[in-house]
Specification:
single chain, alpha/beta, 7-stranded parallel sheet, 15 strands
Length: about 250
Amino acid sequence: MLAAQRRDLLLERLRADGRLVAKDLAVELGVSEDSVRRDLRELAAAGLCQRVYGGALPISPAIADVAGRERVEPASKERVAAAAARLVVPGCTAIIDGGTTALAVARALPLDLAATVVTHSPTVATALVDHRDVEVFLLGGRLFKHSLVTCGAAAVEAAQGVTADLFLLGVTGVHHEAGLTTGDADEAAMKRALARRAADTYVLASAEKIGAASRFAVLPLGDVTALVTDADPAAPALRDLTAAGVQLVS
């Protein structure tokens, strides 16, 4: 089998099984593990998979910039947003992350809600302008233009003054082994800083993020309260998550 044919086979297997294990593939294909790992490196460099220890996982479509993400599963994000908005109860203090699903949550909040929202997303903050009784605190720092959020040392320092009831966390990948991941190291650090300031952390997990992974770890699954998702409960990746003890909100 030519190398190009082998890589095509690996992509087919990744789509079918949701993961690749280098050792098993080497035995099956009659090649060395080094050959399989080389194939995985090339596929990862082309943006076709996410390498992890021992193999590879599907890459998340949510790593695109904001404009690109707006076109990915908008109906799924709206359903997740509606469920997450119900967690923001009157009188609470909620941290809302950045991203397209978080923005949908802000838009889904009732106009008569009386609450406090802390965010590092200028777009989330401006979406709440017409919510007369929502007090909005916007955390400053370096603007990460890819996701339109602030991050970096100044933003992390600003987060230290916050104490919240809940954090609605956006990620690009949710996997039962890889945990919660995103595509930028500074953004991952900011998300961890915000999670430390909330009593409960809920993950905004639209369907395309389940079973996928990105480069940088945000949190292990055991550090969050639940996933807010509309993914099919019968989907293998979601069954793996619930088997790992993850609670679901839908």
